[in-house]
User: What shape does this take?
Amino acid sequence: MKKTVFLGALTISGLLAGAAAAATLDDVKARGKLNCGVTTGLTGFSEPDASGRWEGLDAAVCRAVAAAVLSDADAVEFVPLTAKTRFTSLASGEIDMMARVTTWTLSRDTDLKFDFVGINYYDGQGFIVPKALGVTSAKDLDGATVCIQTGTTTELNLADFFRANNISYEPVPVETDDEAAQQYLAGACDTYTTDASGLAATRAGFPTPADHVVLPEIISKEPLGPLVRHGDNDWADIVRWSLNALIAAEEYGVTQANVEDKAASSGTNPEVNRLLGTEGELGAMMGLDKDWAKRAIAASGNYGEIFERNLGVNTPIGLARGLNAQWTNGGLLYSPPFR
Assistant: This one.
């Protein structure tokens, strides 16, 4: 009798989980639009341009998912969120996914009940200071005032770093990158700390970027990536593999310009054929058609194209690929196989 009840409960649990898993995909299709949580504005990751169109690495991930699911890369409602509001917005269902320079941690993955579906930027926390301050190391910041976004891993890493080095600081709480930049430039804090990529993006927008220096210390690991709610496994698969499609496309030389030709030609590389839907039924396994990945890549290009356009050495931010290079080029970027 106990065994029967257990199996019945398990079956009911499975049915409920299946219903939850299908809910987001069904909602997005019914709405005809993807609600994607992004920053309130961080150059290179997610920021509206002069015409109001959101651009950046994270924005491109949102568009790839919209293209895969809705066949329209522009069918995205970008929802700007602060560090304080982002998790509530995702948990409540206000957004379908988040791509907002958010660090994958154990507690966020478990206690907050979210699923990180991958990493689209390997980062680490740093410090920026005015060159005139004469500081060359973060360990020389004893007694400094520090602009810090509250409710972030950055805040916790800062406390750990100063404690480990037996030095003190005075926090100056801020809620957004824009506020941090304003406070820092106004002299309200000696230094601003956040992800090193964010510091580069912020410095690029300063009136005189050369007057400010990012200190050499990287004090943490910050794997940034998109996330969805727990219990939504089918939806998580779609977001995960849309990101993987962008990464794999770069590895195999599939670009925004040639994706249609490569799909039409059915070349000799079976992995590319499966990626682009000319072999196998990978799309059907996720409730999508065979062209889902082709559309995701066509939306903004492969990962390398997106990186170079928004963050690369020829942009004002000027970041080298570093850890975000393909695994074949000494980086950590790597997609599981499409098979």
About this structure: Residues 1-21 have pLDDT under 50 and may be disordered. The longest strand covers residues 125-130.
